[in-house]
Structure formats: structure tokens, C-alpha cells
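In this supplementary section we document a worked example of the pipeline. Step one takes a protein sequence of length 302 as its only input; no multiple sequence alignment statistics are reported here. Step two produces a three-dimensional model, which step three serialises into C-alpha cells for compact storage. The input and output of this example are shown verbatim.
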Amino acid sequence: MAAATAKIQKTIARQQEKISEGQFYEAHQQLRVIAARYVKAENWDAAIEVLYGGALALLKAGQGKLLTILRAFPRGEPTKKRFVTEMINWSSRVGEYPLGDPELHHAAGSIFAEECEPYDAERHLALGTKDSPEQLAKCEYEWYTQDDSHTAALYAARAIFPYLLVGNLRSANKAHLIFTSRLNSANKSISVQEVSSKSSDMRVYPVLPLLNFLGLLLLAIPRGSSDLFKQLAKHYAPHVKEVGVWDDALAQIGEMYFGIRIPRQGNPLFDMMGSMMGFGGGSPKPKPKKAEVTPPPAADLD
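The serialised model returned by step three reads:
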């Protein structure tokens, strides 16, 4: 059994060498022939292992070529975004990740971050690798430095919420830590207090309540207590209201991590009847809110 496994690994390694030399067609054909022999001998496990190992090697080689092309695009090239979209779509079709390969997302997001394209960087780094939170937090922090000091939480949230919304709490915590660490080291004038307990540590910013809200939210998620989430949301409601753009994200987070179901908008039957009879239905659309935030008043440990 061990000898057979070693033989299969040697076969895969030989074809990987050919793939690394760019002999894709030759490697593909030999893998098919070898797998067919195992199938004929009804050695299904060996056939699967050969095909899987070969397919993985070919996929990685294809990714490498795509990344080489991506890095060759000049800064600001308008067709780059379309190329990235096609690259991600390809990896979702042929790979194991329905939303696209994380390595490709990380590479694309990192390039967009370097080129000061934060929206595109966010879209890809949120689906990237374990190294992506650092890139995203750095990108958001650089973007923040061009704004007023009291808006720190707005940019921190852009590095935290995307990870929470895809169920990646670890990356959300990492992004929060990196952003606040940079904030502390670069802004000595911003007051910060270290609060520790047996189970956790937290930095408290007396003049940045929304940043405290984000930190407390991350601490509350592992507990999964809906009462705790509601208490937190109520305490910081005036500040969150000033932001005006966090409501949808927080509603999703409340449902995902705390079991608070998002209420349906209106009654479907009433809406259908209303549209047929001409008197409308459903809930009225809220007026658009301003995204600007006025400097919050100082607070002790708010």
C-alpha cells in the first residue's frame, strides 16, 4: 500500500515538474493516460488521487500566469478591473471556491490598495487570505488620514464589517487591532485607555465612542447574547444614527451572530393587493441620511 502511494506521488511530482516548465499539454495528456490505466484496473482511489493532484497543479499554474499578467497592468489602466473580474470568475468555475480563489482576491485587493482604490480593495480583500486583513486595515487607515481625526471609526468599520458579514470574525478582529494600533502610534494626541479583564483586553477612546462601539461589538459576538447586542446598540444609538449608513450592516450582524431576525418590510399580500388596486403598500422609504459625522462630545468611558 505504501509503495503504491509513493508511486502515485512520484507520478504527480513528475507531472508537476513538467507543468512548472510550461509543458501544460504534455502533462495533461499523461495524467489522463495514467488515470485511465488505474480506472481500467478498477483502482479508483489511485485514479482520483492522480486526477486531483494533476488538476490542482494545473490550476495553480494557471493562477500564476494570471497573477503575472495582472501585475503587468500599468497603474490606472481602465481594463484592469474587467480582467480581475474575469480572473475571479474563472477561478470560481474551475476551483473549489464559489466566490473565487482567496489567493487571487488577495492579490487583486492588494494591488487596488496600493493604487488607492479602496472600494475595489475592500471588495476583494474581504474574500482574501489570512494576510488580507492587514492590507485592508492599512488601506483604510491611509484613507482615514485624509479626513478629520474624529472620523476614525468610519474607516475602521470599513475594514471590520466586510469580514463580519462573510462570517470571518478572526479577520475582523485582526483588522480592528491593526487599525487601532496604527491610530495609537500615529496620533499621540488622541486619548486612549487600556481596559483589561480576565477574558479580554480593550482600548477605550474617550472622544471616539463609535470606535469603542466597534471594539465592544467584537467582544460581544462570541457570547452570542441578543440582550447584550440590544443593550450595546441602544447605548450607542445616538452616535450610530449620526453615521446613517451602518443600519443595514448592523441588522445583518444582529441576525448572523445574535439570532435577531431582520423584520420583513410590509405584508407581501397587502403589497400585491395595493399595487393591483392602486393605493400602494409596504413601508415608506426612509429619507436619505447624511453620511457626515460631527465631532462627538468627550465622554469618560463612552
